[in-house]
What does this fold into?
Amino acid sequence: MSKLELGHLIHEALRHTLKEQETFLKHKCVQDLLPIIQGLSKFTLELESWYSDKYHLKDRCDYFLKEAQRLEAEADRISENIWDSALLSLTPIFQKIQSHHAASLNDKSYTKQLRAQYNNFRLALLEQVAGARFLENNSDLGEEIERIFVQYLERRLGTSVRVLRGGHIYDYENNRSGQIDIIITPSDSLGFCPADTGSGKYNVMVDQVIAAISITSRLTADKLRNRLQELQKIPVFLQKEQSYSVLKDHAWPLCYIVGAESDDLDKLEEVWDAAGSAEDKHAPQMLILLDSGYLMARTACWPTSRCGKTQ
It folds into this structure.
């Protein structure tokens, strides 16, 4: 686990601790719980100090785990004295931080390094998106998030492809997709921009499309269902087997869904696990949650087959 990943986990712990403190402040026996509230305030300040130094983090996992356990024990004691429930839950998230940190110290494999590198990419994008949230207008925010991803993909993918800021995908029967946020094509593709602007929306034939990417600033379970349904509107490349026989069992185009932030991860996983049936024309290869991680079909190969499962 890189320092950037550890910093992200500490940030999540900080948010969780503040929520616990808010719960205690709203408790009907708030006067009796003042020692816990004061302890949480000191705990939060120390945690914030640890997080603010995230690029030069020291190993303080054991200290914060012990403090969390002490505060929980004190809350249990007061709860028994006042005969009212006042449960405090801090230990699990700090046990997670400690176990992840310990595992990272013992794991020197290439796989671990590669995973850390991709998580660094993800978290760096998350920080850019967090900065974009200072824009007060929702439409400005949406455009800025798309611009962040387009510029990132252009830097990473190089000049052999074009990264288009959205548009529609057509087939030769004039079937058309809905609005696609980002479309990736070969650099010499025949797509055109109706407005004839350098960064405008494009109309592209399906046989020219490498990938279609759906992006949202905040992904919920309902939004994920809608995004999955929108992907099914992309026309099928019926001549794929004749044109590219080696790719006959693989997806065309590759489809991805990106959420800058997410709500209930368990609900998102339920929707994701239910996706990719044989009836679907297009199954996403990956769900990318900048604040949580990556989700792939559990049985997927790379690239994945058309319905998201190995043959």
Q: What stands out?
A: The CA atoms of residues 269 and 295 lie 8 Å apart. DSSP finds nine helices and eight strands in the chain.
